Amino acid sequence: MAVRTANIVAARAVADAVRTSLGPRGMDKMIQTARGETIITNDGSTMLKSMSVLHPSAKMLVDLSAAQDVEAGDGTTSVVVIAGSLLGAADKLLGKGIHPSVIAESFQRAAGAAVQVLHDMSVPVSLTDTTTLLQAATTSLGSKIVSQHSNILAPMAVNAITKTIDIKTADNVDLRNIRILKKVGGTIEDSEMVEGLVMGQNVVKNGGGPIRMEKARIGLIQFQLSPPKPDVSFSTSITDAR
């Protein structure tokens, strides 16, 4: 009983840490990483990744948030808060002497009923329905720090998704097909979506070659363009001469 209580307390501590950042009126968190970097965010996945969680039960909630981020890309804070509330309810039931197996079975039945309710109230969304997709993206950005720029980021996100899939046959998207490049010194208004390949190499101004070329052909090279480093090892011996 003491072990179960300790596990519940550790997991609920993680849920309470991110609870106050939930929703449009949620507060931002200032996190200092082990390397001394300061992060200001209200994204549950980012906060949990930055936390040094040691307890196994608490780590399960961190993994739960990461899985939610990979599967849906949103709801990372909500899933942790809901799990923490369910653990709090389970703790009260355990205090009444109800067996853990009965509680677990009841939660499974409740989850099945909840899934059925969600299926009944859900509305199918076509990938060609740009208006609905924009509304969904704007809603997801409503609880983020950049919510005031949702009119710029939401269309950009929708266009990035629809450009990387076949709208007629796709039912999901691989986010690894979308690359995000961050540049220091710009603003969110400077963000743009590039339909193609972006390379982060600087242009050699004194190389004599063209800086811009229209309708260029691209060659795929399977070796390093920069000069290779010489593979030479030097050995130094020091003799103490007297």
Output the keywords.
242 residues; mainly alpha; GROEL, domain 1; 2 domains; 7 helices; extended; disordered C terminus
In short:
The chain has 242 residues and is mainly alpha-helical.
Provide the residue-averaged pLDDT.
83
CATH topology of the largest domain: GROEL, domain 1
Identify the CATH architecture of the largest domain: Orthogonal Bundle
Strand order of the main beta sheet, please?
Answer: 1-2
Total helices: the number is 7
Helix/strand structural class: mainly alpha
Computed over alpha carbons, the radius of gyration is 26 Å
Number of domains: 2
Helix content: 40-55%
Q: What is the helix/strand order?
A: HEEHHHHHH
CATH superfamily of the largest domain: GroEL-like equatorial domain
Gap between N and C termini: 74 Å
Proportion of strand residues: under 5%
CATH class of the largest domain: Mainly Alpha
Instruction: Give the low-pLDDT segments.
Output: 234-242
Total beta strands? 2
C-alpha geometry: extended
In this structure, how is the largest beta sheet organized? 2 strands, antiparallel
How would you characterize this protein structure?
By secondary structure, this protein is mostly helical. It has two domains: 2-121, GROEL, domain 1 (Orthogonal Bundle); 130-190. 45% of the residues lie in helices and 3% in strands. The chain contains seven helices and two strands. The chain has helices at residues 2-19, 44-50, 56-71, 76-95, 100-121, 130-141, 150-163; strands at residues 29-32, 38-41. It has a two-stranded antiparallel sheet. Helix 1 (2-19) packs across helix 3 and helix 1 (2-19) runs antiparallel to helix 4. The longest helix is centred in the middle third of the chain and has 22 residues, at 100-121. The termini are far apart.
